[in-house]
Amino acid sequence: MATPVLEIRDLHVSIGEKEIIQGVHLTIRGGEVHAIMGPNGAGKSTLAAALMGHPAYTVTSGEVLLDGEDLLQMPVDERARQGLFLAMQYPAEIPGVSLGNFLRAAVNARMGEEQGLSIMAFHRKLMETMKSLGIDPSFAERYVNEGFSGGEKKRSEMLQMTMLTPRIAMLDEIDSGLDVDALRAVAQDINRLRGPELGLMIITHYERILQYVEPDFVHILIDGRLVRSGGKDLVAQIEEKGYDWLRAEAGLPAGTAE
Question: Does domain 5-90+167-250 have CATH number 3.40.640.10?
Answer without folding.
Answer: no
